Structure formats: C-alpha cells, structure tokens
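Tokens in:
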C-alpha cells in the first residue's frame, strides 16, 4: 500500500452522561524532532456536500455537524481510501454507521475500509500517545471545543516551533493547534486512534467507544 510521505525535520454532548470519559493522564509533548503527515484539508462546509442531511437527522447537515466524518475522510486519504464527506455520509447512512440519527459509530470506519483501516481506541488527552501515533505515521482524530461546542479535528504532526499541526474540518485549513485551540494539554478532550489491519477496539478501557456527537447546527461563524 502506498502512503503519503512522512517528512521528519457543534453540537453539545446530548449523550454526555452515557459516554462520559475518565480522561487518561496527559503530559507535555516531548518531541525532539519534527513530524508532519501531508494530508490535504477538507472543509465540511464545501458546497458539494455541506447541505446534505447528516445521517437521518431532521435538522443537521454535513455543513453544520459533519466534523467527525470529515476528519475521518481526511484520515482515510492517507491510506489511499478516498471518500469525500458526502460519499462517506451516504455509505454510513445506508449501512448502519450512525447511532441516534447522526452520531458516528467509530467502528464503522473498519467496515467501510474493508478492514484496511481499523478503529483502535477512544482515549483521553494523552499527549504521549499522540506523539507515538504520529511518529508511527498514524494520524489521530482529536475532540476539542469550538465556541463551546463539541468538534473534531485531525492531528497530522508536530513542529518544534509551533507544536501540534491539525487539519480543521470547520475551517478547511491546516493550522497550529496552539494557535486555534490553545495548549493541547487542556484543549484536547479525547482522541480516536486508527491502525492498519489491526483488530478494532484495542484500547477502549471499558468505555463506550463507538459513538461521536457531531457539531451543533448553530453556526460557529456567528
């Protein structure tokens, strides 16, 4: 399988009580080198799919609440699986990939990719794990808050000068995590990890590990 080259150098949580996380202990990123994974950004508000209903939600669209599936679509590019958010949403909707109308079942990524990429863990904001995953050339999806709403971004690397680098589905850009969300030790709420051809659910620590809320329909630009 051909991979991209590794260069060394809003929606409030309506089921928060059911999926509350006991956050893993985090520690500062102790990188001694720089690692970046070249993945083209995608914008959930792209007109080609932004207005498409998210799952079977009566109110949400990819543009308003599709950050999780857009982050996954970007991540899958790295493994030469190339859905856009509209294609991925259609598959999830037709194949039971959502819970509660529009909440991504993370393990559906395993089925969608035919086992080529497997969901391996829902973890707390452990920066050591993030560094290890990125060093192993595995992008990481991180839960953050944007204007007080749950949001997901794709972690693609880190630099000595700017810290973590992200692809942000809401803005459709590549940016320093610190510049937009502050210190990752406090700005990252949880992470989702994926592996190539490994059994799913390796590191869930007994937590509910398969549901993700999307972003709120409330326009963040306000």
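Residues out:
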């Amino acid at each position: 399988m051909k991979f991209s080259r590794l260069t060394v150098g809003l929606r409030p949580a309506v089921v928060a009580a059911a999926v509350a996380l006991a956050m893993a202990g985090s520690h500062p990123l102790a990188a001694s080198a720089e690692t970046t994974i070249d993945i083209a950004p995608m914008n959930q508000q792209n007109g080609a799919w932004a207005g498409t209903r998210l799952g079977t939600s009566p109110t949400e669209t990819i543009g308003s609440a599709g950050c999780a599936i857009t982050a996954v679509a970007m991540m899958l590019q790295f493994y030469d699986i190339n859905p856009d958010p509209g294609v991925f949403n259609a598959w999830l909707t037709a194949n039971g990939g959502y819970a509660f109308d529009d909440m991504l079942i993370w393990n559906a990524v395993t089925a969608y990719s035919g086992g080529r990429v497997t969901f391996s863990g829902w973890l707390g904001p452990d920066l050591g794990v993030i560094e290890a995953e990125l060093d192993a050339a595995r992008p990481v999806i991180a839960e953050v808050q944007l204007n007080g709403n749950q949001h997901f971004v794709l972690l693609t690397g880190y630099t000595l000068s700017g810290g973590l680098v992200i692809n942000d589905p809401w803005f459709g850009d590549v940016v320093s995590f610190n510049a937009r969300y502050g210190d990752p030790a406090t700005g990252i709420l949880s992470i989702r990890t994926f592996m190539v051809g490994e059994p799913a659910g390796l590191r869930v620590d007994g937590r509910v590990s398969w549901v993700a809320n999307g972003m709120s329909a409330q326009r963040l630009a306000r």
